Inverse folding.
């Protein structure tokens, strides 16, 4: 919808998973969801680093790779956030991708249910759930 709003003529085709995975690297445009990855650096290392198998954009940029390596080696969240800002600017300025986004996931339940939380990869840990009597 956002592409259409920008004036880009888009035809969306939904295909079976087996068909997609046999040809995934050959499509002119696709969008991949990386929910099971908790950190942005994990997604970027899998999907945009030079030479990695899942780099469907074929993006290859030494500055990006160096910043990503620096971010991957930075355990302090605030320091890593500053490096990630540079990484995201690099991606936007290069114009090869639509900016990735990290969306919040939610799970709802009825009153009296406790410990039923949303997991990033949709896992359900029912051993942690309890009910009011």
């Amino acid at each position: 919808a956002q592409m259409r709003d920008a004036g880009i003529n888009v035809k969306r085709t939904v295909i079976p998973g087996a068909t997609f995975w046999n040809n995934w690297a050959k499509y002119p445009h696709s969008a991949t969801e990386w929910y099971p990855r908790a950190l942005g650096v994990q997604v970027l290392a899998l999907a945009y680093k030079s030479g990695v198998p899942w780099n469907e954009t074929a993006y290859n940029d030494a500055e990006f790779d160096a910043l990503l390596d620096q971010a991957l080696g930075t355990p302090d969240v605030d320091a890593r956030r500053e490096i990630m800002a540079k990484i995201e600017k690099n991606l936007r300025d290069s114009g090869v991708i639509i900016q990735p986004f990290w969306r919040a996931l939610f799970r709802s339940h009825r009153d009296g249910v406790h410990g039923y939380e949303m997991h990033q990869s949709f896992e359900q840990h029912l051993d942690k759930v309890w009910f009011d009597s």
About this structure: DSSP finds five helices and two strands in the chain. Residues 24 and 56 are 8 Å apart (CA to CA). The first strand starts at residue 113 and ends at 114.
